[in-house]
Amino acid sequence: MIEPKLEVPAELRDLAEKTIDQAERAFGMFFDAATKSMTSVPGTGTEVSKQALAFTEQNMKAAFEHARKLVHATDLQEAMRIQSEFLRSQFTNAGDHMRQMTGNFMQPGKGKS
Predict the structure, then answer these.
(1) For residue 112, pLDDT beyond 60
(2) Is 47 a domain residue?
(3) Sign of CA dihedral 83, 89, 92, 98
(4) SS3 labels along 4-40
(5) How far, CA to CA in Å, does 22 sit from each of 10, 11, 74, 83?
(6) What are the residue boundaries of the Phasin domain, all occurrences included (predicted)?
(7) Percent of residues, the chain, with pLDDT higher than 70
(8) What is the CA radius of gyration of the chain?
(9) Rounded to 10 degrees, what is the CA torsion of 60, 64, 65, 67?
């Protein structure tokens, strides 16, 4: 069975790319502001908050990159492959982030017995 090609006009792909770029810039400004506000308010949870924000930023960057790849998919099979790769990498990253976060929570208690 032959997969039909995705007939998406170049203008629509260009518009999608520009929209992704604009959204990415807006999130970048948000993350910059959030990072600056965290450093100006020291507290016990600041490091955990910084790490959570960094993980969120990584996830958003991956999502934008994923969207860019999808915009250029030429058939349904390629779109499904791109989606599958993205989900697999996100699950792996989520596990890595959880291990790092729980490791950070466990470290302060190691010396206290």
Answers:
(1) no
(2) no
(3) negative
(4) CECCCCHHHHHHHHHHHHHHHHHHHHHHHHHHHHHHH
(5) 18, 16, 23, 22
(6) 31-103
(7) 86
(8) 19
(9) 130
- How many structural domains are present in the chain? 1
Determine the Cα–Cα distance for residues 26 and 33; give it in Å rounded to an integer.
Answer: 11
| Phi then psi dihedrals of residue 96, to 5 deg | -60, -45
Model pTM? 0.76
Q: Which residues span the domain enclosing 73?
A: 64-102
Q: Which residue has the tokens 């990159």?
A: 65
Residue type, position 90, single letter = Q
Instruction: Specify if 3 maps to a domain.
Output: no
Rounded-to-integer distance, Cα 104 and Cα 113, Å? 17
* CA atoms 7, 13, 19, 25: torsion sign: positive
Is 43 within the bounds of a domain?
no
Tokens of 11: 């203008």
